[in-house]
Amino acid sequence: MQIQKYSIEFQDSSFLQLNKHLASVGYSMIFVLVDTNTKKDCLPLLQSALSDYNLNVIEVEAGEIHKNIQTCTNIWNALMEFQADRKSVLINLGGGVIGDMGGFCASTYKRGIEFIQIPTTLLAQVDASIGGKLGIDYGNVKNSIGLFKNPSAVYLNIAFFKTLPRAELLSGYAEVIKHALIVDKSYWEQILNCPNIDKNDWKVVVERSLQVKKSIVELDPFEKGIRKSLNFGHTIGHGVESLSLETDHPLLHGEAVALGMITELFLSNKILGLSDEHLNLISNFIIKLFPKYNLDALSKAEVLNLIHQDKKNENGQVCFTLLEQPGKFKINVHVEDVLIMEALEYYNNL
Ligand SMILES: NC(=O)c1ccc[n+]([C@@H]2O[C@H](COP(=O)([O-])OP(=O)(O)OC[C@H]3O[C@@H](n4cnc5c(N)ncnc54)[C@H](O)[C@@H]3O)[C@@H](O)[C@H]2O)c1
Ligand SMILES: [Zn+2]
Questions:
Q1: CA distances from 208 to 127, 175, 202 (A)
Q2: How many CB atoms lie within 10 A of CB 315?
Q3: Theoretical Cys-Cys bridge with 228: which of 108, 282, 295, 331, CB 3.0 to 4.6 Å?
Q4: Which ligand is closest in space to the CA of residue 122?
Q5: Whole-number pLDDT of residue 196
Q6: What whole-number percentage of the chain has pLDDT above 70?
Q7: How is domain 7-163 classified at the CATH fold level?
Q8: Domain residues of the chain, as ranges?
Q9: Ligand nearest to the CA of 257
Q10: Ligand number nearest to the C-alpha of 233
Q11: In whole angstroms, how far apart are CA 168 and each of 95, 253, 312?
């Protein structure tokens, strides 16, 4: 399978580029997938930028709990009812949920129609919209059904952050921290020196973080090696996130990744010799930024069970990406269950 080339436009003129793109391709119909929030907060901006075009809007409920096969059925039904043909395009206007699910629906509708990502959250701009991973949650396991396929283009615009709730901005910031920690020590030090995230220039943050993600996925599009570095914080993070979605206190993706990074830093300390100093410094930085989650509400056995089901595992063994030091990762590290339990305990006691 070949990875299709696509452009990422990141500038104030990104809508101008989008207009040019639509004019040059001449799609038969243009669909825009939104959720209840992006319909209200983001669609007007897009509609005014694309006033020359007839946009057919498909709306779904917002939130991770709707990233499932039932919502896909609704999206495919809508495309059928509008009689979308194979020259149609689906513009996914929203966060990672809309991007992952919309891309999945577009790629499977009539064996695949084109789709364009317009990510509207920090998380989606620096992470979910880049790298071609598409899919939905299934049977309690996150992102367990899906495929790799690149969009025709990605258009980024930080103007969307104006309406983004603070918790969502913070959620995206977890991925920014992850990018810095795995490959860019000086970027991490910069982040460490800016504990008040409101002081960030988002244009700079998005551009730098995007570069990290882009360069990694271009080297390893199908996650055979180096791309696994991006899983730092996600092995324990995904397990806890999946379970939390069934409780009254569901975690946002980035909140779960923040917890995942702290627990996996503990593992890094025990297994790869990450220094005590780094473990304490980074854990304290993260714990101050993100709301502390009460792990007692979850069954540790179920967390472990979900970690064992993770699709990143190989030969029945749980595979982690851990850090030797900031900016230096190691992939495919096997970890015993007892140590995973200790890591959860470490987080609980912070
Ligand atoms: N494909 C990948 O490589 C990849 C990488 C990381 C995460 N993900 C996936 O991304 C998802 C998380 O993405 P997310 O954090 O963007 O979640 P999300 O799509 O649920 O968006 C978060 C919330 O913000 C709202 N929203 C979005 N943009 C807004 C705006 N500009 N103004 C106001 N409200 C807005 C949404 O309606 C939603 O309620 C998860 O499903 C995760 O699995 C995928
Ligand atoms: Zn993530």
A1: 12, 12, 10
A2: 6
A3: 331
A4: 1
A5: 87
A6: 95
A7: Rossmann fold (3.40.50)
A8: 7-163, 166-348
A9: 2
A10: 2
A11: 10, 9, 26
Would you say how long the chain is, in residues? 350
| Rounded distance from Cα 128 to ligand 2 centre (Å) | 7
Residue 2 has a pLDDT of 36
Alpha carbons 108 and 147: distance in angstroms, whole number? 10
Q: What pLDDT, on the 0 to 100 scale, is given for residue 246?
A: 84
Q: Distance (Å, rounded) from C-alpha 224 to C-alpha 200? A: 34
Residues of the chain with pLDDT under 70: 1-12, 311-316
Q: In this predicted structure, what is the pLDDT of residue 6?
A: 59
pTM for this structure? 0.92
Please provide the DSSP assignment of 142-163 as one string: EEEEEEE---SEEEE-GGGGGG
Question: What is the C-alpha to C-alpha distance for residues 265 and 285, in angstroms, rounded to an integer?
Answer: 12
What pLDDT sits at residue 7? 61
Protein residue with its CA nearest to atom 41 in ligand 1: 97
3-state secondary structure 234-293: HHHHHHHHHHHCCCCCCCCHHHHHHHHHHHHHHHHHHHCCCCHHHHHHHHHHHHHHCCCC
Q: What Cα–Cα distance (Å) separates residue 20 from each residue in 9, 13, 53?
A: 12, 11, 12
Task: Give the residue, by CA position, lying nearest to ligand 1 atom 11.
Answer: 96
* 78 in Cβ contact with 106 (< 8 Å): no
CATH 3.40.50.2300 given to domain 166-348: no
Residue 313 CA to ligand 1 center (angstroms) comes to 25
DSSP 65: G
The answer to whether the 7-163 and 166-348 domains have the same CATH topology is no
The ligand 1 atom at the shortest distance from the C-alpha of residue 100 is 1
